[in-house]
Amino acid sequence: MGAKLPSVLVDVNSFFKDESFAGRCNTATLPKVVTKTMDQTLAGVAGDIERDLGRLEKLECDVTISDYSERITGLLGARDSREEVFTLRGAVDVGGIIKTVIVRMQGFWKSAEFNEWAPEKEATMKFAIAVELFHFEVDGKELIYIDKLNNEFRVNGVDRNKEIRAALAQ
Q: How would you classify the pairing of strands 19-20 and 8-16?
């Protein structure tokens, strides 16, 4: 089988509720999804083994807004910022076919950083979101779904925490 062209994120748009931030939200770094493990040292085994705990490390998203938006700045440190759904939509070229990628996140808007000030530069602010709900889908198919508060973690439709919730009567 020969080489193939890599997928390319052709363009993106972001939304806060129904308001498009096209041209103002130009970069976002999606959360790194890491399962929580613990090291175990076992007798008769050649080394430590990492054991899955059915939990996740912290999820954090960075978003840069090229605007001093009162609406977005108002989310900073607000307890109800967790209710705000931040949606990213992308057009991904996969072998010449455009696919739709949708990412939805909710969480606590915990910090803001004013980026470099210089003449003729964009007026940007970088926000960090402590993500509690993360939904990643491609062409309508859910690839990753995380709802930390409800102990839900699905990958390709497989519920990784179903048995844990059942054991806890959740």
A: antiparallel
User: Any idea what the CATH number is for the domain that residue 74 is in?
Assistant: 2.30.110
Give buried/exposed letters for 86-107 (b at 16+ CB in 10 A, else e).
bbbbbebeeeeeebebbbbbbb
pLDDT of residue 115: 87
* pLDDT given for residue 2 in this prediction: 78
**Res. 111 pLDDT band, cuts 50 70 90:** very high
By the 8 A CB rule, do 87 and 19 touch? no
- Number of folded domains in the chain? 1
Residues spanned by the domain of 143: 8-31+59-167
pTM, whole model, 2 decimals?
0.91
